[in-house]
Amino acid sequence: MPIIKYEIYIEAPIEVCFDLARDIEVHMKTTNETKERAVAGRTTGLIEIGESVTWEAVHLGVKQRLTAKITEMERPYSFTDEMVKGAFHSFSHTHEFRTSGTGTIMKDTFSYKSPLGLLGVAADKLFLEKYMRNFIVNRANELKNIAESQRM
């Protein structure tokens, strides 16, 4: 099961970073490349513990839907979303935030299990893990840009 970890420093308060990371409209802005949009469940505003959202997006050239539920939340330090339905066998994405100097360290930990047994493991090695890492990193950089532009 691949585990992707990524940390980024954001020059913004922890509360701002926490709320931006769980804001549905911001999520759509930070995932332009995959054309993500919320189509069911919580479709606007800040997602809360126990709520779910169904995303429709184009990944690897295939239009697909994925439903994730917020299973843990400790405001403003962390929240976890887990796949309820979608293309993966399973996934868990923990978002952690800690104050550092005048800003915030945001850490993503994304663990997933591909479908299709050995074929899925081969896909991980060939392209999927790299694709998912790039997705996590690009989204984190977009969140950083949005958070830091709000400070001006």
Keywords:
152 residues; alpha+beta; Alpha-D-Glucose-1,6-Bisphosphate, Chain A, domain 4; seven-stranded antiparallel β-sheet; 31% helix; globular
Report Rg: 15 Å
Number of domains: 1
- State the shape: globular
pLDDT average, as an integer?
95
Name the poorly predicted regions: none
Major sheet size, sense and barrel closure: 7 strands, antiparallel
CATH-wise, what's the superfamily? START domain
> Could you tell me the strand content as a percent range?
35-45%
The number of helices is 3
Question: What is the H/E order?
Answer: EHHEEEEEEH
In CATH, the topology is named Alpha-D-Glucose-1,6-Bisphosphate, Chain A, domain 4
CATH class: Alpha Beta
Number of strands: 7
Just name the CATH architecture. Answer: 2-Layer Sandwich
End-to-end C-alpha gap: 41 Å
Strand order of the largest sheet: 1-7-6-5-4-3-2
Helix content bin = 25-40%
The assigned structural class equals alpha+beta
Structural commentary:
Helices cover 31% and strands 42% of the residues. By secondary structure, the protein is of the alpha+beta class. It has one domain (3-149): Alpha-D-Glucose-1,6-Bisphosphate, Chain A, domain 4 (2-Layer Sandwich). A 7-stranded antiparallel sheet has the order 1-7-6-5-4-3-2. A hairpin with a 3-residue loop joins β4 (62-74) and β5 (78-85). α1 (14-21) packs across α3. It starts with a strand and ends with a helix.
